[in-house]
Amino acid sequence: MEKLQKAILKTLAYADVFDYPLTLAELRRWLITNSKLKIQNSNLSREARSYSAGQLKIQNLIHEGKVQEFAGFYFPKNRKEIIDLRKKREKWSQVKLKIALKVARWLKLIPFIKMVAVTGNLAMNNSDKEDDIDLLIIASENRLWLTRFLTVLLVELVARRRRPGDKDVEDKICLNMFLDEDHLEIPEKEQDLFSAHEVCQLKPIWSKDNVYQEFITQNQWYQKFLPNWKP
Questions:
Q1: Which domains does the chain have, with CATH numbers?
Q2: Of 82, 117, 149, 166, which has the maximum CB count within 10 A?
Q3: For helices 82-107 and 144-158, angle between their N-to-C axes, nearest 10 degrees
Q4: What is the pTM of this model?
């Protein structure tokens, strides 16, 4: 099996772990490979070459019964039901995003916060109804612990915060990651495919002083896993 076909199958299998069928554009963007795949054809642009080659390989995989397509979505065989699930999750995610936006506006009151972003499934509009709302906070240099304290205090006042041991977490705010603007790179021991997805798919609600751009710059290692992704 050719490299591109293996990458397509790996990408669809990874997305399937999260019950997430992919469009052709998403498949190209999130293609899991350790280098940019180059398809030689001087008459086409690089983007057109990638699409045409990818479409051909996908059609071959469909013909072989390894991949299925329906309504513009691609997924492993016998997984058609995740299309409806994705659409349901998109609706649930919109409700949660409104809550996240409201909380993020309140967090602007804390001067030491440089960025608030949605992470996890919600960043991909793929949250279940019962899911919580994961937020990443980037704090000013040397203000991490003070920012954490003030953020927890404010979220307690304006929203429902998820606490350790909570069983009912629906629509609760989970402050799952705090970073200092001077230490934005994900630790090397955590630089894997999952973390690469987390870096690339996070959705900034607001950012100051180009902190989001700096976050991406300091985590260029994601290209070892997702070289086709761009901010």
A1: 3-80 (1.10.10), 86-224 (3.30.460.10)
A2: 117
A3: 110
A4: 0.87
